[in-house]
Design goal:
16% strand; 5-stranded parallel beta sheet; Rossmann fold; 47% helix; alpha/beta; 12 strands; 22 helices
């Protein structure tokens, strides 16, 4: 079952129909669905698919040769080209007469095994591109390698690509397509605990309850997800222990650089280098109050839901999970799930607002959305706004999100109104998002104000 990626497939098909030489670079984190995307794209096309392996040049060349000859003859052959240059040149010659796709997956493994691969490819592209109908795809999971050695202006292949795609995890709307049997609430919770990474979504069973899914995966010492974050770090970075400590510090409440470095026991200068790498991997994000480009109030958060859930709940329960006490571990996690889902619900609400904007139905045509936090001059206390988006200096929207079983009461709306007045916009649009609806008092006040939209979680699901 292939889900989503409509824009990516449309872009690849547009390149394909040009009938001239095209060179697309596809990259993104492991498990995000790059290989599935390529296979879906080439399934009805003349294509040679080759996946590099973490081995030497001889083994990779043998495998590449087999893929080429299997395309040519439809049979498995033991013949091997004398060199990568000879193999690539043969493919370029094949594509002079007909449209042909060459997809090289896990390209960094190939390039590591044969150091001259990029230079050889550069030479052949320059030689054949004017008369070639080849569509070349290079794909890799090592994002730092792809950015530094393929996309960077210092790389041999710089200037040759005609497209690049950084594949991101699915959003909430696409994630919902995976699951037909989960309740509406469980769809949000599943997204909250594994995010939109396809390989993680496949570990979830929509015929089971949320509780059983958590027990079978995160709380099961033999499951794929139980060791996934640590395994992924080992594959991506050289010193996983320190990266692990930094993510743990953030997951357990440290959000500012000084707090994180204190908790980890390293200087801020050291932590900032590691933090930059984690941001590059899409695991951590740096956030500043909305409207402030550079701020001492910047905080760091875990960007990936699976990592956020794992680091929040698994390490502190590791010993009992290892002893098979999944029921006991879940009993310790359950009281905190609703609070954990608060941040997830904010992201789902932002996605809803973006959809309104893209469909031309947004009352405020914002440019970006974010959170705001700072000092309330009237109380001299700290204040926070879940969602804020500005159209211009005269118009903005403000949102508050509540993932609770109780209906949202008038007090929450009054608070949002007050916080919106910390800013001086002529026109404001307020959004109150609720998991389970609103009290009559809240609805009456919203009607009276005239600039308030009350949106329930079921409303969001209907819009997907």
């Amino acid at each position: 079952m292939f889900i989503g990626r409509k824009r990516e497939l449309a872009s690849l098909n547009k390149l394909y129909t040009s009938d001239k030489f095209e060179f697309a670079v596809i990259y993104g984190r492991r498990r995000v669905g790059k290989t599935a995307l390529i296979n879906q794209f080439i399934r009805d096309k003349k294509a040679i698919y080759f996946m590099g392996i973490e081995s030497n040049a001889k083994q990779n060349l043998e495998n590449f040769s087999k893929n080429i000859l299997e395309y040519e003859t439809g049979l498995q052959a033991e013949t091997t080209f004398l060199s990568f240059q000879a193999a690539l040149e043969y493919v370029f010659q094949l594509s002079e007469k007909e449209r042909l796709v060459l997809a090289i997956d896990e390209y960094p493994y190939v390039a590591h095994s044969y150091k001259s691969f990029a230079s050889t490819l550069q030479l052949l592209i320059d030689q054949y591109k004017e008369h070639s109908k080849l569509m070349l795809i290079l794909c890799g999971s090592s994002m730092s390698y792809m950015e530094d050695h393929v996309l960077s202006y210092k790389a041999p292949l710089y200037g040759r690509r005609t497209a690049q795609m950084k594949i991101q995890p699915f959003d909430f709307a696409d994630t919902c397509q995976y699951f037909k049997n989960f309740s509406d609430e469980d769809k949000a919770c599943i997204y909250g605990i594994v995010g939109g990474t396809p390989q993680y979504l496949l570990q979830m069973d929509d015929k089971l309850s949320l509780e059983d899914n958590i027990k079978n995966t995160f709380l099961n010492p033999v499951s794929f997800l139980f060791e996934e974050p640590e395994n992924l770090l080992k594959q991506e970075v050289r010193e996983p222990a320190l990266y692990n400590a930094i993510i743990t510090a953030i997951a357990t409440g440290a959000s500012r650089m000084a707090e994180i470095s204190t908790k980890v026991g390293e200087d801020t200068s050291v932590c900032s280098v590691y933090m930059k790498n984690l941001i590059g991997l899409g695991l951590i994000q740096k956030e500043t109050p909305y409207g402030e480009k550079a701020s001492r109030k910047s905080i760091y958060e875990i960007a990936d839901n699976m990592f956020r859930f794992w680091y929040r709940f698994v390490p502190e329960n590791h010993s009992i999970i290892a002893r098979g006490a999944a029921d006991l571990a879940y009993g310790r996690i359950k009281p905190y799930l609703s609070d954990y889902m608060g941040k997830v619900f904010e992201e789902i609400c932002k996605e809803y607002l973006w959809k309104l904007l893209l469909c031309g139905e947004a009352p405020v045509e914002f440019h970006e959305l974010g959170r705001w936090w700072g000092t309330d001059p009237s109380t001299h206390g700290q204040s926070e706004i879940d969602i804020m988006g500005e159209q211009d200096k005269n118009c903005a929207l403000f949102g508050e999100c509540k993932w609770t079983n109780e209906k949202v009461d008038v007090g929450i709306l009054e608070k949002l109104v007050g916080r919106s007045r910390l800013f001086h916009y002529e026109k404001t649009q307020l959004y109150l998002f609720s998991k389970n609806g609103f009290t009559k008092g809240c609805m009456d006040m919203a009607d009276g104000l005239g600039n308030v939209m009350l949106v329930t979680y079921p409303d969001i699901l209907k819009s997907l």
